[in-house]
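Exercise: predict the fold of this chain.
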Amino acid sequence: MTSTYRDNGDNGDEGSTEGELNQWKHRAPYRIHHKSEHFKARYEGSCHCGKVTYQLSREKPLDAKYCHCTTCQKIHGAPFQWAAIFHKDDINFTSGIHDLGWYESSEKTCVHKLPCKVSCAYCRTPIMDEGRNMILLFPTLIDFKDPADRKNFEISCHMFYPRRVVDINDGKPKWSGISDNSDLIEDSPQEAVNELKRKRQEEEDKKDQKDE
């Protein structure tokens, strides 16, 4: 039988984890890293019930942020989402790959269609958000051995801050929407505001030069 998996992540799985059509198991981030690949585990994480466990090889995420959007608030049942960005090959599931469930929030379906939200199908712990190129992991699932490891996951900014349900006066940049694609607001550091103005002025100047 031919697989229905397409490059954009839209397949015919309908939330199932069995059968020949489920080629997702053989692709990052779900494929199991073999010993010959020398996957160096730096961190270990798990869901609440322990059915889903994983390892991470990267010492620091590509970035980490607090997201205050209402979708994150509702799905996590929390004031905000703490998300850390990793490459898909940075993770290695050690158990529970068949105990995962998906949720595609725009269409509100359980189809494995990217981008989608991944959770433990048993205890419902959110495991990650899977995008087309990256994954967003949740540091609260990681078993940090010491404070230095936890500090590696310190956030760089807040997103969708106007939708917050709690004020966080931490001096970090606070964006009205997606970082770098919206406006800095509230108590964002003045140097960050100035840098954003400079970048946007450069973009305007380049655009004007193109139009001449």
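Check your answer against the key: The CA atoms of residues 192 and 198 lie 10 Å apart.
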